[in-house]
Amino acid sequence: MAVIKLSEAKVNFIKDVCKSYGNKPGEVINVLHKVQGEYGYLPAEVQELVAKELGIPVSRVYGIVSFYSFFTMTPKGEYPISVCLGTACYVRGAEKVLDELKRQLGINVGEVTRCVGACGLAPVIEVGDKVYGRMTPDRVKDVLAEYK
Amino acid sequence: MINVTIDNKQIQVPEGTTILKAARMAGIHIPTLCYFELAGMKFENKPGGCRVCVVEVTKDFNGRPRRNLAPACATDCVEGMEVLTHSARVINARRTVVELILSDHPTDCLTCAKSGNCELQSLAQYLGIRDIPFKGEQSHYRQDMSPSIVRDMDKCIMCRRCENMCNNVQTVGALSAINRGFSAVVAPAFEQDLVDSPCVMCGQCVQVCPVGALTEVDDTRNVMAAINNPKKTVIVNTAPATRVALGEEFGMPAGTIVTGQMAAALRRLGFDYVFDTDFTADLTIMEEGTELLGRIKKFMAGDKSVRLPILTSCCPGWVNFFEHNFPDMLDVPSTAKSPMQMFGAVAKNYWADKMGIKREDLVVVSIMPCLAKKYESKRKEFYKDGNPDIDYVLTTRELARLIKQFNLDLKDMPSEDYDDPLGESTGAAVIFGATGGVIEAATRTAYEVFTGKPLPKIDFTELRGMEGIRDAWVDFDGTPIHIGIAHGLSNARTLLQRVREGKEQFHAIEVMACPGGCVGGAGQPYHHGNSEIIKKRTEAIYREDLGKPIRKSHENPSIKKIYEEYFGEPCGHKSHELLHTHYFDKSEHVEISE
Predict the structure, then answer these.
(1) Using the 8-state DSSP alphabet, how is residue B165 labeled?
(2) Are the CB atoms for A105 and A99 separated by under 8 Å?
(3) Which end of chain A, N or C, is less packed with Cβ atoms under 10 Å?
(4) C-alpha to C-alpha distance for B322 and B326, rounded to whole angstroms
(5) Residues B518, B535, B536, B544: which is the catalytic one?
(6) Structure confidence by residue, pLDDT tens digits, A32-87
């Protein structure tokens, strides 16, 4: 007997989402979309439960999750931080800003992103939807404080 | 009917016919790779993905040539269509397609388990490919080895036959296409191992895989090592369906019966005793039949707690399937072990004692048409003090390989008998190899025991056939008995759901996991989609039954003797200890944490 371990709140939320789509197998993408919207990612247990509720094999749910790049199985932070490492930002000290962010947050870089297109304000970082220009390592603390 | 011209040959085909099927009707060969059909078994795989079957449509519905080449498997014929299947343009494209597939495929054909039976290898040969011009990255995946199936996905060509088989024919749902682009592959959820997935080890994915991505676990070396060990007594038992298929590996036509030749070959391989699983198939009927009658009698006496219908439990793929999917019905199947596990229990207890052989010095090998049997032999409940009842299971294909390695040809073998006493069997036992056979064998015995009268006719033709779900009423001298039969696990699921919902009532249901029953098992010679082969094997099974002097299990003299000497009575104390088993809930359960 294999056990799917989840908190009661999660179980109820997922069951409600599935129910709101009539527990139809064809609605699996919509269900996953809603569930990821709530929890930020789709761990294995969540996929197992969605599969069970919709009456489809979990291999199919995983097939969909692994196919679409929108779906993710790794937990994402509440505020994605992007540090522009384009040429302009880089020469004006973006790397030092990045090092300071890593030091204060104790995390590593997950993905390398493109130039954010604000070279006039270099170096630039983005937190969530907000852009911070002319960044210095000293200002990192103040910016992070806004999100605590 | 519409008119089409293929390779300048005019033919008439029904509307909705694909170019591929029309060409086949006209006797024109179009090579295919991902396409797969098992006619009459409701299995057709045509994702149109590999593009090997592309053809040139020189005149389309609008009277003009089609700009692109069309996949023949997924393009319907239209009135007046003209098609070239082997134009220079087609051959060129086809070769490029196969070269591209080969550019991401290991070229270890020398040591590949599928060599000689590989459809990609044949295609490369057919197209005369001598070089792979596209050099580049190759995809690599972790190898996964379950007790039955080896997955080497480096060799997967994404034809998706296995996925189709697993989800639609078997409704097991273990496999799915995952990831995208270059890393796309067929795998269980979360790329977990097959043993951790809902896989039931039926192995039908292996039977349809065109390449070496899915193969059986090879136990031939272990068996040879045991035979080479002078301290060990090595005995073998052969399943019913193997005797009507092994001949195919030696160029004999499908449906050739090679029972005696197989026994002779096994002796020449060095097995000390050659026995027959058919003997314990007769024993299974005694146990399962008694259990069935016990339940029916209780039910008729008004006992409402009795679980009916009784479900057969000979097929290990089916046992795995209901453990995963019908955990609420675990007390419904017969508790009788499969004939193979009964053989192991009888050999390592009754026979070993009788012969004065220590359990650890006795090696029991089974020749099976099945991959799930490899898994079944490894189930913990079939071990005693760390020693299994069945040591090794070889498939029909593995046995053929061994025989060939010994420079033997089955065609030249004399016909020899099995050894006594675990070699004597009846016609009822041999029909275990085909869908409907187990329940027919049980009916032959149950009828006579229940009514106390001899059967008016031995052949229950109403229980035979290839329909996925069948049912029949059998008259037990005034008491009508309702019997259900399913083969292929999607059919089993449908039938069981009807029973679960109370829509239909049966006294007994027989289920075999593979299409056609064991004759179509995953360990049998590759049929490459030719379902005629499965039909021929089935006919041979019933021919073998007809030729047997005794055709009812309870009349087998060795069976009578084993009850007198050892077991006492069917479903008695000793039987329960050695010949019956129990089942486990393997389904997914939600548990609240925190």
Answers:
(1) I
(2) no
(3) C
(4) 5
(5) B518
(6) 999 999 988 999 999 999 999 999 999 999 999 999 988 999 887 778 888 888 88
Q: Identify the burial level of A111 via C-beta atoms within 10 angstroms of its C-beta, where 0-12 means exposed, 13-18 middle and 19 or more buried.
A: exposed
Kindly list the residues from chain B whose CB atom is less than 8 angstroms away from the CB atom of residue A3. Answer: 588-591
Of A1, A59, A62, Cβ closest to residue B585 = A1
Q: What is the DSSP letter of B333?
A: B
> Whats the size of chain B, residue-wise?
594
Residue in B173, B589, B592 closest to A59 by CB: B173
Q: Which of B248, B291, B424, B510 is catalytic?
A: B291
Q: Where are the beta strands (DSSP E) in B369-478?
A: 383-384, 387-388, 392-395, 469-476
DSSP B184: -
Q: Is it the case that residue B157 has pLDDT exceeding 90?
A: yes
Q: Is A145 in the B-facing interface, judged by CB distances under 8 Å?
A: no
pLDDT in tens, B203-259: 999 999 999 999 999 999 999 999 999 999 999 999 999 999 999 999 999 999 999
B553: its two tokens = 């299990």
Length of chain A: 148
pLDDT band at A113 (very low <50, low <70, confident <90, very high): low
Q: Give the best residue of A59, A67, A74 to mutate against chain B (max B CB count within 10 A).
A: A59
Question: Tokens at residue B259, please?
Answer: 């029972």
Tens-digit pLDDT profile for residues A14-25: 999 999 999 999
Quote the tokens at residue A63: 């097939």
Residue B508: closest CA among B327, B332, B342: B332
Q: Token pair of B126, please? A: 């057919």
Tokens coding A10? 């999660």
Pairing of the two strands B9-13 and B273-276: unpaired
User: How many C-beta atoms lie closer than 10 Å to residue A78's C-beta?
Assistant: 7
Q: How far is CA A47 from CA A27, A31, A73, in A?
A: 14, 10, 10
| Burial classification of residue B471, based on how many CB atoms lie within 10 Å of its CB (0-12 exposed, 13-18 middle, 19 or more buried) | middle
Pairing of strands B2-6, B9-13: antiparallel
